[in-house]
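Workshop exercise sheet. Pairs work together: one partner reads the sequence aloud, the other fills in the structure field after running the prediction. Swap roles for the next sheet.
Pair: D.N. / O.F.
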Amino acid sequence: MTASTQQQPVPAAPRSGKMLRAMVGIGILCGLMIVLTYEGTLPVIEANRAEALEKAIFQVVPGTEETRPFRWTGDGFAPLTAGQTSEDELIYAGYNSS
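Structure field:
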């Protein structure tokens, strides 16, 4: 037999248990990073959203000094009190001092 016709030894196939552990570990790490990024950026996103809404209201209703949110109840508009949240679309009223 010549050197060119000798068969090279075939490496053993990786065990599926090790591959599975690696994939699960990477999946858990990626999931954790996604959750931490979401939780870490949520307050900044909400603050930016509120600031953009306020700027839009003051741009649409010039001369506004104060805004108040209202929601539609079916019978009319009801003011949204502090700490109360609504899944409905809100309507904002702009007020000035005069």
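Discussion prompt: The helical segments are 16-60. What would you look at next?
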